[in-house]
Amino acid sequence: MSGPVASLAGLAEAVAAAPRRGRRRLVALAGPPASGKSTLAEALCARLTEAGTPAQVVPMDGFHLHNPILVERGLLARKGAPETFDAAGFLHLVRRLSEEAEVAYPLFDRSRDIALAGAGILAPACDTVIVEGNYLLYDAPVWRDLRPLWDVAVSLDVPLATLRERLVARWLAHGLSEPEASARAEGNDLANAALVAGAMLPADLVFPA
Predict the structure, then answer these.
(1) I need a surface site. Which of 14, 134, 163, 176 has the fewest CB within 10 A?
(2) SS3 annotation, the chain
(3) Per the domain annotation, does 195 fall within a domain?
(4) What CATH number is associated with residue 102?
(5) Which tens digit of pLDDT belongs to each residue from 4-46?
(6) Are 99 and 23 in contact (CB under 8 A)?
(7) Does a structural domain hold residue 165?
(8) Total number of domains in the chain
């Protein structure tokens, strides 16, 4: 199992056929900001579940550090960069997802810009966990320890121009002006995308998003 996959149906088929190391199959959907990770994760989850493979989505974003900590460290403007996450805590969760019957995990409330502890529950009946996030294939300390845990690793391939367009639209929707939205996209989100692109571990599958 390797190479590009062109459709949701093809991706679901490849995932469902993949062997698993533990109690559950762990699927990574890795991609930069605005690559469509969340949308694809939910669509894949629904497709698998409808086909008889109960699935759930677990986002990485619940491991954002709290804003006061980022302020203290001078990192608030870089929120979303690797150093603004609890990478070790996330790694610990992923190891638990594979084996434990029921697992509580944090979720990120975008409207309040905070992480909520224990806001999600992975049910015992779940067969396949779809984990989505920016740094699931990032070749850096702690983050790289995730790679051996994935039964299927999927990288989302999105042109840079498309990412920029989506990111600017996202920040405009949050009330920023055009110059502010462009600066936010260029100064943080696209910088993070370039960081990952320059240090990405191999994926099993590549999905055009």
Answers:
(1) 176
(2) CCEECCCHHHHHHHHHHCCCCCCCEEEEEECCCCCCHHHHHHHHHHHHHHCCCCEEEEEHHHHECCHHHHHHCCCHHHECEHHHECHHHHHHHHHHHHHCCCEEEEEEECCCCEEEEEEEEECCCCCEEEEEECCCCECCCCHHHHHHHCCEEEEEECCHHHHHHHHHHHHHHCCCCHHHHHHHHHHHHHHHHHHHHCCECCCCEEEEC
(3) no
(4) 3.40.50.300
(5) 888 999 999 999 999 999 999 999 999 988 899 999 999 999 9
(6) yes
(7) no
(8) 1
Band of residue 183 on the pLDDT scale cut at 50, 70, 90: confident
Mean pLDDT over all residues of the chain? 93
